[in-house]
Amino acid sequence: DIHMAQSPSTLSASVGDRVTITCRASQNVDNWVAWYQQKPGSAPKLLIYLASSLESGVPARFTGSGSGTRFTLTIDSLQSEDSATYFCQQYDAYPLTFGQGTKVQIK
Amino acid sequence: EELLVESGGGLVQPGGSLRLSCVGSGFTFRMFTLTWVRQVAGKGLEWLGKIDDDGGEIQYADSVRGRFIISRDNAKRSLDLQMNDLKVEDTAIYYCVKGQQLFDVWGQGAPVTVS
């Protein structure tokens, strides 16, 4: 199985900050990576697919990058509503696997 | 609006069985692969398996193969997850999800407790 190692596990930042979350795959997954946002009590929401493509309706302050084994999700100008847990997911091979999540807290 | 609504979660003893159901609306249900994903409280997400649009191809994660059965009825727009021989470690929130590799529509989640 492909392991997705996500870091950090938690981060705290202020409104307006830029934050970056990293996901490392245990093997090459090309650009078959997605990012999801999950708020407490809700299901995950798709933000980014194909490593860098923004899902319709997702604010442009969310950007994804990377290929191969290293991927990043960046939130420019963090907003209070961005407080959530973020997960990466590879869909290069089955079983599909997710990172363990990064909890973003607002200071 | 595309929606998936799960039902059937609850408390079950180890070794017992439980059936989850999921009904879709707002999209052409019969045209899409559907997937089950679970999440242990406060933890990450685990892909459990998928069923293609006509139910002809089903794939399972190793952790549930032989115990869980995925099925669908396109006429009823329903997706089911039959869970047998449940273990304490199967305790989680179970989501039905639209999609094969990318998941753009999620159900609200069905909590399952094995204790």
Secondary structure elements and their pairing?
The complex is a heterodimer of chains A (107) and B (115).
Chain A: E1 4-7, E2 10-13, E3 19-25, E4 33-38, E5 45-49, E6 53-54, E7 62-67, E8 70-75, E9 84-90, E10 97-98, E11 102-106
Parallel strand pairs in A: 2-11
Antiparallel strand pairs in A: 1-3, 3-8, 4-5, 4-9, 5-6, 7-8, 9-10, 9-11
Chain B: E1 3-7, E2 10-12, E3 18-25, E4 34-39, E5 45-51, E6 58-60, E7 68-73, E8 78-83, E9 92-98, E10 105-106, E11 110-114
Parallel strand pairs in B: 2-11
Antiparallel strand pairs in B: 1-3, 3-8, 4-5, 4-9, 5-6, 7-8, 9-10, 9-11
How does this structure look, described?
The complex is a heterodimer of chains A (107) and B (115). Chain A is mainly β and 107 residues long. Chain A has strands at residues 4-7, 10-13, 19-25, 33-38, 45-49, 53-54, 62-67, 70-75, 84-90, 97-98, 102-106. In chain A, the strands form two sheets. In chain A, strands 2, 4, 5, 6, 9, 10 and 11 form a seven-stranded mixed sheet that branches. In chain A, a hairpin with a 6-residue loop joins strand 9 and strand 10 (97-98). Chain A is globular. Chain B is mainly β and 115 residues long. In chain B, a hairpin with a 5-residue loop joins strand 4 (34-39) and strand 5 (45-51). Chain A binds chain B through residues 32, 34, 36, 43-46, 49, 55, 87, 89, 91, 94-101, and chain B through 43-47, 59, 61-62, 95, 101-104, 106-109.
